[in-house]
Amino acid sequence: MKWEGVMPAVTTKFTNDDQLDFKMFDVNIQAQIDAGVSGIVLGGTLGEASTLTSFEKSELIKNTILITENKIPVLMNIAEQSTSEAIRSAISAEKDGASGLMILPPMRYKASDDETVKYFKSIAQSTSLPIMIYNNPVDYKIEVTLEMFDQLLECENIQAVKESTRDISNVTRIINYFGNRLKIMTGVDTLALESLLMGAHGWIAGLVDAFPNETVAIYKLQKAGYISDALEIYRWFLPLLELDINSKLVQNIKLAETYTGIGTENVRPPRLPLDGDERKKVIKIIESSLKNRPDLSKYTY
Fold it and tell me: Was domain 5-293 assigned CATH 3.40.720.10?
């Protein structure tokens, strides 16, 4: 597993009658591949994980592997309430052919530091797959501290962190503490370029679902040292990226996907598509951004 580049946390596509829409899902995944992403993350928050059945998660893994032809890794997110169910999900994902796992802390129950470490270790010990720990105390109320990571890295397959603490300096702390042992994948779209410039290895992205080429261009330009060019695209992108740090991020991004032709608005209840003033506001952001969409052909990377 190479923890680098852009890895989209993809949305799950649904038909009008609430079944998995593999036709549109395949269109989106192909757009990601064509843009040059480094991996695919399934079943995250954007993937409406809490509404997916075990069977649907399995089908998503198998289908994505067929599309990617094993050219890039396919990761499954693990977000469960009990250790036993998390272990079952990890074993199932490995059996289905996933290349790696992204794991959230225990859901709903606010576990202590010791409980959280034990939870992650128990999952890691149940699988040979490489693991990325999702550290997002803002949304999930549990912070994985440096001291906790020190214990977790006793498991060789715990290799990366999706860094979503919203504290840019945490990138430097991790590098100072662990060197190259713990790979850093920035997980907040509105802090992505800043985190990459501070040393993050890659980007678990959200708006990439609608704008794969622009997202990959930012990553590659900064990687090649063309910071001013990366900044130019990033500044254009910011109003769109802010749609990701919102409680309606799934609806926001799915609406954006319809404008770029690689998705639909169908969400799974209890979510509902945007409406009213909220919808008008998001549409205004999307349409305004599309009018000024950068010409990527002028950049070399």
Answer: no
